Amino acid sequence: MNGARNWGGLGLCALAALQAGCSETMRPVLGGLAVGDQGSAFHMPTLLNEQLPFEYPRDAWANRIGGETVLRIRISTAGAVDSVAVQKTSGHRSLDSAAVVGARELRYEPARQGERPVPVWATLPVRYPMPERSGEP
Q1: What is the mean pLDDT of residues 24-34?
Q2: What pTM was computed for the model?
């Protein structure tokens, strides 16, 4: 996306690094939220969830399937994700479905144009790291 702004928020890179060493408790990891250029008075939405609502599908875990699903989400003026679509598939239906279900549970401080909350479309990558061994996700 030309002119996109990226938001890493809440130490998601640190979260990914911590999870990389704990395969038995590994969870999906969010990438940076990207929104097209909205101008200088635009403020990005801020993730409010303390715990991410994404689950690693048991069938994918058992079969050591990993991948990344890129979602297109709409964040309302209330901060709810009110629309979700798969923009780029992971190649595995269970991972894509789990990403959509989890995204619907995300809550944000809404985007603002100046002081006014505005709805916004954004892309959100959800990465499912390849499990290293069998066990519970």
Answers
A1: 74
A2: 0.76
